[in-house]
Amino acid sequence: QVQLVESGGGLVQPGGSLRLSCAASGSIFSINSVGWYRQAPGKQRELVASITSGGSTNYADSVKGRFTISRDNAKNTVYLQMNSLKPGDTAEYYCNAAIKRGSSYYYNTYWGQGTQVTVSS
Question: Is the pLDDT of residue 29 over 90?
């Protein structure tokens, strides 16, 4: 139906930048929105940023002004540009697709495999 593959994670020094990619395949026209989540060891998974099919974006307060979510419809890819990275941004980052089919809404079904972001000096 929908498959998501993340890439772009890695090790970066504080103040550095990374761009994460989430490539979608399958029934991509059923996707209503895509969100980037992150989860650090011992912490709950949290929503970092999201973008709707109409292009509306939302950001967690902790990343607003530093992170930018965008999409390239031609490539079926959503990006998360992360600038001014801090050690607190260290986490496994996952993309999630919210799907609307008929009267059903699937918001916790389609996830990528995750990509590790480590911010350390």
Answer: no
